[in-house]
Amino acid sequence: MGLQAEPILARLQPVKQSAIINIFVSAIRFSTSSPSPNMNDLKSSAQEQLEYMLTEDDDAPLLTADDNIKVEVKECVNRLFARFIDSVTAFFSGTTESLSEAGNVQLFQSYLTDLSWACQILSKLEIMREFVEYWSDASEKIVKVLEQGSSTTEVIEIKLRAVEVTSKVLEAIGYGTVILPTAKRLQVLKVWLPFVRVTKPLIDSVTTNCENAMLLKLDGEMWQSLESTFVSIILALPSGDQADILTEWLDNEYMQYPDLTEAFEVWCYRSKVAKRRLSLVGDEHAMTNSF
């Protein structure tokens, strides 16, 4: 083909792994750096390409992450989360007055959107544990701040983004990707279950009546998945804790979502079986003593 073909053939050569790693590291740092709003398009593009680099489709992923890459990703996400928590903490220190202020709305939307995306990267790399623990520990503060906001479309969108992040965290807990102690699982459930229960009707009302409904559109599969996750987490708790949660659900006006009927049915069945088994054990013990 001659000298004319050499430039074309050069472009077809495999890219060096070191070059791929360098691009990935630069992109993950930029994507989690919370750049100014006028760079949102660049940030979104970088985030999309990072996902693509890690995606296995007809071809192998462009990058196979080693331990060094995983450490870099975790550190970048941790810094992003730390900035978000600093903003949350500002509400409790009195330096920030209202979530509804324009600057706060934009800031929280950006942080939560980036954290939701970051969860996908962490999940692909199977390194969700740290983030799940951090989010669980901070959940009570996060919800308190979100509950301070008004019912404007912008604030409801922030709540929606928080639900998106929480759904990924709870999914990791509910399906055993991340193992947390029972007390911590119960605590995170008690924080987010009431919040989601009240927030979903708000989102539904806005998407039905508001001109900006597309901003709040959320995949129906996510709501179904979140509901299933709640059920899974509840059924993995001790029976007494399950009973407390189900009692509160049955007494609540927002019992339609999440629908915990499956958890209720399983709890009833398990309780009945346990009672029968205990009764049999008691009968056997009595017979043994009679001899």
Automatic annotation (TrEMBL):
Coiled coil: none annotated. InterPro entries: At3g05675-like, At3g05675-like_ankyrin. Residues 37-272 form the At3g05675-like ankyrin-like domain. Keywords: Ubl conjugation pathway. Pathway: Protein modification; protein ubiquitination. It holds the Pfam family BTB-POZ_ANK-like. May act as a substrate-specific adapter of an E3 ubiquitin-protein ligase complex (CUL3-RBX1-BTB) which mediates the ubiquitination and subsequent proteasomal degradation of target proteins. This is At3g05675-like ankyrin-like domain-containing protein. It comes from Vigna mungo (Black gram).
